[in-house]
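Troubleshooting entry. The earlier prediction with (2S)-2-hydroxybutanedioic acid gave an output that would not parse, so I re-checked the input for stray whitespace and re-submitted. Clean input:
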Amino acid sequence: LTAAATALALTVTTGAAFAACEDGETVIKFAHVTNADKHPKGIAASLFAERVNAEMNGKVCVEVFPNSTLYDDDQVLEAMLQGDVQMAAPSLSKFEAFTKVFNIFDLPFMFKNMRAVDAFQNSETGQAMKASMERRGLRGLEFWHSGLKQMSANKPLLMPEDAKGLKFRVQPSDVLVAQMEALGASPQPMAFAEVYGALQTGVVDGQENTWSNSYGQKYYEVQDGITETNHGVLDYLVVVGVDFWDGLDADVRTQLETILREVTVERNAAVEQVEAEARQAILDAGGTIRELTPEQLTAWQEAMKPVWAKFAEGIGQENIDAAQAFNA
Ligand code: LMR
């Protein structure tokens, strides 16, 4: 099959949205796991592709594969090193096999909002993190935001004790595993695409994620309710293979990086709105959202905070202090 025929075939079979690539164009397959149009990452990836395909037509063609149609996050980085996919934006919790520097983002109650996350990432410490996997063949280009995470289960979660003994799906991160263990819960690392089914069949009792993912994946259908804990951050790194990226002509690379930067600034500025719309959409669809009293919230913070001490040495206390300064 020619690249164009392959693209067309995939469009038909997977619903992946991209213009057929032309002969002679450098093809960038961009694989991700969320939906393409109602999710901060999906919207950003679609916009990046649209702009590149319009502004760099004839030179570069971006094909976006949303909804885990090409790879799950646990395969995508290895596939990238093999040259089978050129771009991805896994959450920062998914890089542990390559670097531990992103552990800081998984510490519970580390950042009070996405503005603090943004400010920290734009600091010298945050920017240096993008290069932490060069030795392993991966380069971070930009951080993309989503939002704060909320907890849900098949029973009401109002106090941390309510989570005791329950099985929670987590992303594959030692910090998130420790966070659930701190609650006396049982963490189950699992691919994103499998979570809805696992909740539905009772393989796990609960999960933690953003409003946009809880809405996009319809978790509210198979959970008792979602508790507004805002206890953690879900954020992404747009990542490429060093060999692929350095192999591009300099002018092509510069233009791609310029478009990506503009898309990043535009979409990161819009995440709070996208998340708020997803929260409202859950309510409109009949989902239950529980807000916590200040006392209940403090109880969750106290239950989860001991996790920090376990990872402080690996992360570096100076990095934790630097990040905390942005909460002020
Ligand atoms: C998850 O696995 O829960 C998230 O990383 C999915 C995503 O990319 O938003």
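This one parsed fine. DSSP finds 15 helices and nine strands in the chain.
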